[in-house]
Amino acid sequence: MASSDPRSGSPERAAPGSASAPQQAQTPSEVYRRLMDGNQRFVDGTPAHPNQDASRREALTAAQAPFATLFGCADSRVAAEMIFDVGLGEMFVVRTAGQVADSVTIGSLEYGVEVLGTPLLIVLGHDSCGAITAALNSFATGDMPEGFISDVVSKLLPSVVRATGAGRGDVQGTVVQNTIDTVRRLPQRSAILRQAVEDGRLVIAGLTYRLADGRVNLVAKLDASGVTETPQADSAPEPAA
């Protein structure tokens, strides 16, 4: 992370006059549209691979100013920057198996929002998730996996229970439920994220990703007005400005 003053919440930034200086979108809607445009290029097989050259790399040596924070699964098939066709310094990414959050993970997300000033926090789930599959197996059999994988599974079991109770207890339905639960849970656990949402400085959007075609789908949105869930829809309203 670039050096900054956490008390001011204002990171050091590259000189505005630099041709490759970081450029930060101003509203959640602008950020969301930029990411959706990038995802469409990825789906179409026409990625632009922006801001990945040597001049961009050099411009970022002293500072970063990403326009979005993303919390996704560690699955090797779900590389966030590729999915949204963004470049160096444009997205602050945190990934764990099944989007399971501990205090360090949440602290990292707080850094992206409060210090780096990103107006949109994406929670990204995906189909065929191995962590979700393991949690479903444990729920069905009563057996927990060995090692610290059991910690991951135990944190996913509440979403398994809710998805099963709602009649969508397969892998994909549970992925959607876990994504929605994470959107709700993050501001409940983090006063910093909750305040940013209440102040209108942050929108949290829950997306799911399809491995086969590369497309993302909005299943939940949290802004100052509350939560909107569309677990069965193909799309949902864009994050508010």
Automatic annotation (TrEMBL):
The keyword Zinc applies. Residues 14-29 have a biased composition (Low complexity). PROSITE patterns: PROK_CO2_ANHYDRASE_1. Catalyzes the reversible hydration of carbon dioxide to form bicarbonate. It comes from Brevibacterium pityocampae. PANTHER family: CARBONIC ANHYDRASE, CARBONIC ANHYDRASE 2. CDD domains: beta_CA_cladeC. It catalyses: hydrogencarbonate + H(+) = CO2 + H2O. Keywords: Lyase, Zinc. It comes from the Bacteria. This is carbonic anhydrase. Belongs to the beta-class carbonic anhydrase family. The lineage of its organism: Bacteria, Bacillati, Actinomycetota, Actinomycetes, Micrococcales. Residues 1-31 are annotated as: Disordered. Its EC number is 4.2.1.1.
